[in-house]
Amino acid sequence: MSGKRSPVIISCAITGAIHTPTLSDALPYTPDDIADQAIEAAEAGAAVLHLHARRPHDGGVSIAPEDFAKFLPRIKASTNAVINLSTGGSLLNTIEERIAPALRFSPEMCSMNMGSMNFSFHPLAGRHEKWKFDWEKDYIANSDGYIFRNTFADISKAATQLSAHDTKFEHECYDVGHLYNLRFCMDSGLFKAPIFIQFVFGILGGIGADVDNLIFMKRTADRLFGDSYRWSVLGAGGAQMRLAATGSQMGGNVRVGLEDSLYISHGTLAQSNAQQVAKVRRIIEELGSRVASPDEAREMLGLKGVSRVSF
């Protein structure tokens, strides 16, 4: 968007649906650990907390609203951060199942994936011989057969049902075609400006984590959406901090968190989500920008406010 340069919104994706407990001892999966790490990330500077749920007994992915209910009230009571619920959830569930938590809790924001794609992380299966839980290795190894389904019908169903909640979307775009999908959906009346786009780089099946691709995606979005959008950058794995630093200097916002990368630097596992938030905040501030507060993020993104959520 044009005008005076805005502060940088830091989003933190706390646990996600890709990484499993064996891959990092820091990955939270119990309700207390998810809440603790979310609160610490907010204290470190995250204005937006992007949240998935996990099965407390073995760390598996959960989209059950009752599992979200175990940590959402505590996070809300302890922070002023914007809560952003995933509608991605498990790659193996229907759109009706995936949007159930957002429909129940009516968050200020939720994610919205803008196209179907191959979505694989199967190379991670070769990193360990012993696994904490029996489900982990097959879940990772079999992802080479996963298709992350987000058809136009799925997108329309989610957008229509959530419109009554006045919930804004983080439109996750994993490739340039997803930007055109979003433009089509806007022209069809599903979404209204201003919108918030999350450029996603480095997922196997999506666009690569190259600065040239970031420039290309941004230029394409400028052409398609003009001044009617804000944007953020998510670099998976080792691209996390590099693309965050670049994106912040291009006028964008940033997303970090253990959902997207388990590392704090090359070869060194992060100790927590807050450690990643603190690092990207330091980079942003040392490069001369300012980090947005939660209320500034609400104003920038046109959110309905925390008083209108249902948790």
Nearest-integer average pLDDT: 96
The CATH architecture comes to Alpha-Beta Barrel
Query: Any idea what the radius of gyration is?
Result: 18 Å
CATH fold topology: TIM Barrel
Question: At the fourth CATH level, what is the homologous superfamily?
Answer: Aldolase class I
Q: Provide a count of the helices.
A: 12
Order of helices and strands: EHEEEHHEHHEEHEHEHEHEHEEEHH
Apparent shape: globular
Largest sheet: 8 strands, parallel, barrel
How much strand? 15-25%
* CATH level 1 name: Alpha Beta
Describe the oligomeric state of these chains in a short phrase.
single chain
Number of strands: 14
| Helix share bin | 25-40%
Number of domains: 1
Secondary-structure class: alpha/beta
Low-confidence stretches: none
The CA-CA distance between the termini, in Å, is 32 Å
Strand order of the largest sheet: 1-2-5-6-9-10-11-12
Cofactor: Zn(2+)
Keywords: Metal-binding, Transferase, Zinc
InterPro entries: Aldolase_TIM, BKACE
GO molecular function: 3-keto-5-aminohexanoate cleavage activity; metal ion binding
